[in-house]
Design a protein that fits this description.
Number of domains: 1
Strand content: 15-25%
Distance between the termini: 116 Å
Largest sheet: 7 strands, mixed
Strand order of the largest sheet: 3-2-1-4-5-7-6
Shape: globular
CATH superfamily: Vaccinia Virus protein VP39
Oligomer: single chain
Number of strands: 7
Order of helices and strands: HHEEEEHHEHHEHEH
Number of helices: 8
Structural class: alpha/beta
């Protein structure tokens, strides 16, 4: 399978399905369990009315609990066994009202989305001012990213984009988000047989202890900035009032020029008489 660099919607769906299958492997289930625990911790203080999760599949939710009562999962493709509370829509074409969502969770959405920039713009459009956004993606600056570079078969999850967390942060800042913090997790080697080992390796111990940015995935937590309109004082045009002539002369503020010889003419006429 080729890379998702310039992918179509069909390739997006194929990649999404391969991600769904991979997350049901032993290594994938361990990674998913750790991500669920992190999402629960990050979103423990999130409140509001509506929560949207852009999920890989309705079978693999990462935020099935929390303080927000109305939770909806959005998946790329409709399936026959989808339960209530699941909507089928592409992530770059969300059927959501503007400024209507309090919390959006993107679980590896940017890794396989056809249009990642448009996806983030859609999420920003849907979020309320002050709403929160949590993004999970594979970390290219890790052993998982190294395996993706040298992997030949391009199976899941190596067929995804692996966008760096710093690039995601830059995109969010352009969309007027304030990034709270970025976390990294899962320091196991990207090999299925290592998933059966119950004893953590040296890299796992060091990574967890020092919280190194070398984990298999990153988690970016951000808040949409509140935009307030700045009142602008209107500039009224000052009308120039034309003065009316009074007492056989012109007023002081008149725009017309008076005849300087009119007074002398009158005097001359009287004197001749």
């Amino acid at each position: 399978m080729k890379s998702m660099k310039n992918s179509s919607v069909e390739e997006h769906l194929i990649c999404q399905k391969s991600y769904e299958d991979w997350f049901q492997t032993t290594l994938g289930r361990q990674l998913l369990a750790e991500q669920r625990a992190l999402v629960f911790e990050k979103c423990a203080d999130a409140y509001g009315s509506h929560q949207i999760e852009l999920a890989i599949s309705h079978r693999l939710p990462v935020a099935s609990n929390g303080n927000i009562p109305h939770r909806v999962a959005v998946v790329p493709k409709r399936e026959a066994d989808m339960p209530d509370g699941v909507v089928a829509a592409l992530p770059h074409e969300l059927p959501l009202a503007q400024h209507s969502v309090d919390l959006v969770i993107m679980h590896h959405t940017l890794d396989y989305a056809s249009f990642p920039h448009q996806t983030l713009r859609e999420v920003s459009r849907s979020l309320k001012s002050g709403g929160h956004l949590l993004i999970i993606g594979f970390n290219p600056l890790s052993f998982w990213g190294m395996r993706r570079v040298f992997n030949r078969d391009r199976g899941a999850p190596w067929n995804g984009r692996f966008i760096s967390s710093q690039r995601v942060v830059d995109w969010l800042e352009l969309l007027n988000f304030e990034v709270d913090r970025t976390n990294y997790g899962f320091y196991k080697m990207p090999v299925q047989r290592w998933a059966y080992s119950q004893k953590p390796g040296l890299l796992e111990k060091i990574g967890r202890h020092f919280k190194l940015p070398l984990g298999a995935y990153y988690c970016v937590y951000a808040q949409k900035q509140v935009s307030a309109a700045i009142p602008i004082k209107p500039k009224w045009k000052t009308a120039k009032v034309i003065g009316m002539p009074v007492a056989n002369g012109l007023s002081k503020n008149s725009l017309f020029v008076a005849d300087p010889f009119s007074h002398s003419r009158k005097k001359g006429i009287k004197s001749n008489q």
